[in-house]
Amino acid sequence: MDNKREHNRSPLKVQLRIDHPLHGQMLVTTRDISDKGVFVVVDDAQRLLQIGEIVSGQVQGLPIEAPIVQMQVVRFEPSGVALIFQRD
Fold first, then answer.
1. Rounded distance, CA 40 to CA 30, Å?
2. Under 8 Å CB-to-CB from 44, ≥6 apart: which residues?
3. 6-15, long-range: CB within 8 Å, 24+ apart, which pairs?
4. CA–CA separation, 28 vs 46, rounded Å?
5. Which fold has domain 12-85?
6. What is the distance between the alpha carbons of residues 31 and 25, in angstroms, rounded to a whole number?
7. Angle at 30 between CA 15 and CA 77, to 5 degrees
8. Measured between alpha carbons, how far is 48 from 26 in angstroms, rounded to an integer?
9. Where exactly are the structural domains of the chain?
10. What InterPro entries does the database record attribute to this sequence (predicted)?
11. pLDDT by position in tens, the chain (length 88)
């Protein structure tokens, strides 16, 4: 099977705080990251996200405060949600 992905993914397991405008904060774990986005592992209770929604996210647990980035929900899989970074 050919990998048709434009951006290579790198495994990355960190805690990510997602801030949703209606549902508040969710703490999730990332599975992988690329130049374009990140995949986060979520359980059914956290499936409050909808395709197309914009959320903000910030990596937690670093020695310095990480930047807050805007992301858009683009895909669901049984194990989680794919988010793409919103560029200015």
1. 4
2. none
3. 6/36, 7/34, 7/35, 7/36, 7/37, 8/34, 9/33, 9/34, 9/39, 10/34, 12/38, 14/59, 14/60, 14/61, 15/59, 15/60, 15/61
4. 9
5. Thrombin, subunit H (2.40.10)
6. 19
7. 140
8. 10
9. 12-85
10. PilZ_domain
11. 445 556 688 999 999 999 998 889 999 999 999 999 999 998 764 567 889 999 999 999 999 999 999 999 999 988 899 999 998 6
Tokens 């956290």, located at residue: 46
Residue type, 50: Q
- C-alpha distances in Å from residue 56, one per residue of 2, 5, 78: 32, 24, 22
